[in-house]
Amino acid sequence: MPPSKYRSVPQLPVPEGHSGYDELNLGRLALISGQKTVPANLQRWQKQALTPDGRPVIITCTVPADQVVPHGLDNDFMVGLLNLCFEAGLPDGPFTVSAYALLKTAGLPDTAQYYRSLQESLIRLNKASYTIDEGWYASGTQTWTTQSFAQLSYLSYVRSKAGIRGTSVITVQLAPPIMESLRAGYIKPLDVEFYRSLSQPLVRAVYRQLDALHFDERTANGLVPEISAPLMAWSSRLGLTSDRTDNLSRTLAPAHKELLARQYIVEADITGRGRDKIVRYVFGPPPEGQHPQLAALLSERGVKQGVAVRLSTVFPERIEEAARRFDHYLKVSTRPVVNRGGLMVAMVQRPEDFADLPATTAAKTAPAARAKTSRREQQDLEAKDAKDRASIAALEGQELVDWALRQLTLMGVLKRLPLQLRAPLGEALHARTLDARLLVQQATRALSGGSPALDALLEDLQGHLNGSRSFRGTELHASPVVSE
């Protein structure tokens, strides 16, 4: 079946609970040092890593003279930004969040110390320049490419005299190669609750690196049971700066102890002598993911376990329909399917290529059964809508501001607001000179009114933020509020 000429960007679900995402290149290449602190004069490093197929990759990081290379908590903030980018709907341009929301998503305390760390981290992530020599996997073209970028290609924020605070509005844009990977679905599930619960930056960095390497589609079940590497190379990969193996062993020991105690790994040992030491990790039970039933549907159709976990986390809304199309295709195909698992994966990742295959199981359902299902779905939607409205009504303070910014982003309103007005918008919402719920309601109504209504809303909003007039809005009728 020939592929379609146009391939749509996958609409990925917003992570919920302890489910989250990590971009696979970032997870595997470890561009940020896992050390809590680094020498004040460390402004450049170069390291060698291996791609999953064993090819050597040279990675270089440089920063300006007044900076140090990204390290420590920068990993946590980058994980937070990746997942906030999903919440924002993978926008084409910059997206806007509050400092409080970013700190919360990174799993860090809401204190002055961590707001200072956040400000320093954002600057490092924007200033640090990386070059990756034929080691960045472009999922769309399925090739290893050379890339040069800063992880944050755009950064804007307004700070008080004391620096960034919870109400500060931050506007960022992730580097184009990162955004291309996210849109192509070159990601893996990340248990963000487990990640945040780990005690130190190095423990989290070791976990993130191991978890990215754990998923490998070349193995029999899509998961690597164990990993071993020269200690010096592994430590360099994690960004550890010592060149003494005894120091490196002592540095890694607390991380090994914690990951063993949490049963993420069942073995962690370092063997050998001197610079020939080898570190080895054996993983614990295979991950089940957030949707084990959906993963089972994939496994039953020949998809490897690790791939099934990843796809059921990334595309849960696609699995059941893809399974129906797959089953139907097997019944009507005049030729045997050589790679059943590969076909099933393709149907999940590229549903537009198989749109002419009916999901017949659903189509043959009796009218009475379809009506019953429709009524049940309508009841479920009404119950969810009531729950969402109650949750929104209970929001206050910074959480209400963050909700409003998220809704305006998802509706595409923020991307049409000049960048220099996004921080004043956050301040106005926090000071309640703008009613957050009213603004979202008006934006929702303007969307249904088309471009002229949205233009009028934006003109009114910009006038308020520029101080030329108050936000008037229009007379409200009953209109839906975009749910979280």
Produce a short descriptive summary:
The chain is of the alpha+beta class. Helix content is 46%, strand content 15%.
Explain the layout of strands and helices.
Elements: E1 19-23, H1 24-29, E2 44-50, E3 56-62, H2 74-87, E4 95-98, H3 99-105, H4 112-127, E5 129-138, E6 143-149, E7 152-157, E8 169-174, H5 176-184, E9 187-191, H6 192-197, H7 201-214, E10 226-230, H8 231-237, H9 245-261, E11 265-271, E12 278-283, H10 292-299, H11 305-314, H12 319-332, H13 340-349, H14 360-363, H15 367-394, H16 397-410, H17 422-431, H18 436-448, H19 451-465
Antiparallel strand pairs: 1-9, 2-3, 3-5, 4-8, 5-6, 7-8, 10-12, 11-12
Protein name: Plasmid replication initiation protein
Organism: Deinococcus humi
Region (Disordered): 361-382
Morphology: globular
Strand content: 15-25%
- What does the largest sheet look like? 4 strands, antiparallel
Q: Which secondary-structure class do the elements indicate?
A: alpha+beta
Mean pLDDT level: 84
Structural Rg:
24 Å
What is the number of helices? 19
Distance from N terminus to C terminus (CA atoms, Å) equals 38 Å
